[in-house]
Automatic annotation (TrEMBL):
Subunit structure: Heterooligomeric complex of about 850 to 900 kDa that forms two stacked rings, 12 to 16 nm in diameter.
Annotated catalysed reactions: ATP + H2O = ADP + phosphate + H(+)
Protein name (Swiss-Prot/TrEMBL): T-complex protein 1 subunit eta
Organism annotation: Dermatophagoides farinae (American house dust mite)
SUPFAM superfamilies: GroEL apical domain-like (SSF52029), GroEL equatorial domain-like (SSF48592), GroEL-intermediate domain like (SSF54849)
């Protein structure tokens, strides 16, 4: 009797890609190493920049790891994990994104031979989690507190943290100038240190040193109708009306229809519209406001009306600028003028419209509730100013973190070398596979000082050997790379400092990324739709 075969079970759609097993883990490791290669040379004071051109032809020049990874159009699902981890580092502490990508990729590179030899990924993950616990415990012991009662001393410490961050940026030559500016900006915020209360405006032209910090709000003059040139450009102690009202004659809506039987009726409609506008303008004038800002347009009739009565007005003000003005000067953003009074008007000591480069800027200084600042950046090319903005963002985040978490560690690869030594010593106290994996983890941490040497053109092997020797000595825990003199130095004494929360978060993020990537042993890719297949075929045809 013929035995019937079981029919095949079709579980997934036709065209689904399915890869699994050891080769899948290795494929993910290789993809993450490729991502790290993209940002490897950007690390440190001698790091190089990357030029990224998108599909629209827009160019970005940057050495900020988060920006580069964000701009890259990565399609490999495993590599995207590393990009997300780097972004989380940027969101959490604002700096150290390149370090996270490099350390995570190096962790994976060192454990790749174990995976190839058949060590189960869960064994590796367990060892990494144990190694991370040792790192975090040592961080607590190694971190140096800088709780200073002397404000001047505390300010100097914060400036040194900012300078360390700016050393690896495009504005490294002006790091003293910008470090002072960044610390001034952060120190003027309230206890919560909100990032959105620091406005950064970019104005092409001039030198970097012409950048300025405004203790208040400044924004570019908005589009104005005829009559604005007759308005005063400076006030002392003005009251400020913040509105979300359209102060102009409304255009008829599409398909709107009004039927009138005579010219007199039409005239009454027109007169009513004008009367509504003039009633609004009169209420604003009688409220005592001298500066009128609105999110919506302020038309030519209103502009001329305010000019005749010595009021200043600006329409189409961006929502962010309007809110920051409200935070600094008080008052409220109103959608009606019926209850405009002292209770909801803002006030500042000085208002001025001033020329910056080829543009006019409105300045509100001496605000009654001055918890906001504005940085106006000057510079040459647009890409240069944008990269300066990204550099300052990192420095601002670092100073905020240093204020909130008052402990620091030495940079320049010093903390990584010390943690590497501690892990290597610990690995000798355990047996079996765990010893080899923790030793590999220890070796991986040396990637930071090694890459700092490679990017500066130094002999990495020689300097790392000398660093290992110094870290084996009792007084050598803060020795790292001295990029300026092609040597090693005590980076704590050299004031190369970073908030410990940055490095701590980088270690956690890199370890988590490694464990996550190692735990994936199968990728199931859904079949592409007919439209995607047609588009892919067309692009292949065009390429040929």
């Amino acid at each position: 009797m013929m035995r019937l075969m079981n029919p095949p079970i079709i579980l997934l759609k036709d065209g689904t890609e399915n890869t699994q097993g050891k080769q899948q883990v290795i494929s993910n490791i290789n993809a993450c190493q490729a991502v790290a290669e993209a940002v490897r040379t950007t690390l440190g004071p001698r790091g190089m920049d990357k030029m990224i051109v998108d599909q629209k032809g827009e160019m970005t020049i940057s050495n900020d790891g988060a920006t580069i990874l964000k701009k890259l159009d990565i399609v490999h699902p495993g590599a995207k994990t590393l990009v997300d981890i780097a972004r989380s580092q940027d969101d959490e502490v604002g700096d150290g994104t390149t370090s996270v990508a490099l350390i995570a990729a190096e962790f994976l590179k060192q454990v790749k031979p174990f995976v190839e030899e058949g060590v189960h990924p869960q064994v590796i993950i367990r060892s990494f989690r144990k190694g991370l616990q040792i790192i975090l415990k040592q961080f607590h012991e190694l971190s140096m507190k800088f709780s200073e009662n002397d404000p001047q001393r505390k300010r100097e410490l914060l400036e040194k943290c900012a300078m360390t961050t700016l050393s690896s940026k495009i504005v490294a030559h002006q790091k003293n100038f910008f470090a002072k500016m960044v610390v001034d900006a952060v120190m003027q915020l309230d206890e919560l240190l909100p990032m959105n209360m620091i406005g950064i405006k970019k104005e092409k032209g001039g030198a970097l040193e012409e950048s300025l910090l405004v203790a208040g709000v400044a924004f570019k003059k908005t589009f104005s109708y005829a009559g604005f040139e007759m308005q005063p450009k400076t006030y002392e102690n003005p009251k400020i009306a913040l509105l979300n009202i359209e102060l102009e004659l409304k255009a008829e809506k599409d398909n709107a229809e009004i039927r009138v039987d005579s010219v007199e009726e039409y005239q009454r409609v027109v007169d009513a519209e004008w009367q509504i506008l003039y009633d609004k303008l009169e209420k604003i004038w009688k409220s005592g406001a001298k500066v009128v800002l609105s999110k919506l347009p302020i038309g030519d009739v209103a502009t001329q009306y305010f000019a005749d009565r010595d009021l200043f007005c600006a329409g189409r003000v961006q929502d962010e600028d309007l809110r920051r003005t409200m935070q600094a000067c008080g008052g409220a953003i109103l959608t009606t003028v019926s209850d405009l009074g002292d209770g909801n008007l803002g006030q500042c000591e000085h208002f001025e419209e001033r020329q910056i480069g080829k543009e006019r800027y409105n300045f509100f200084t001496g605000c009654s509730n001055s918890k906001t600042v504005t940085i106006i950046l000057r510079g040459g090319a647009e890409q240069f100013i944008e990269e300066t903005e990204r550099s300052l963002h990192d420095a601002i985040m670092i100073v905020r973190r240093a204020l909130k978490n008052d402990s620091i560690v030495a940079g320049g690869g010093a903390i990584e070398m010390e943690l590497s030594r501690i892990l290597r010593d610990y690995s000798r106290t355990v047996a079996g596979k765990e010893q080899l994996i923790i030793a590999a983890m220890a070796k991986s941490l040396e990637v930071i000082p090694r890459q700092l040497c490679d990017n500066a053109g130094f002999d990495a092997t020689d300097l790392l050997n000398r660093l290992r020797k110094r870290h084996a000595e009792p007084d050598g825990k803060w020795f790292g790379i001295d990029v300026r003199h092609e040597d090693i130095s005590d980076n704590y004494k050299a004031c190369v400092w970073e908030p410990s929360v940055v490095k701590r978060n980088a270690m956690i993020a890199a370890s988590e990324a490694t464990c996550l990537i190692l735990s994936v042993d199968e990728t199931i890719k859904a079949p592409r739709s007919q439209q995607e297949q047609t588009a892919a075929a067309q692009s292949m045809g065009m390429a040929m």
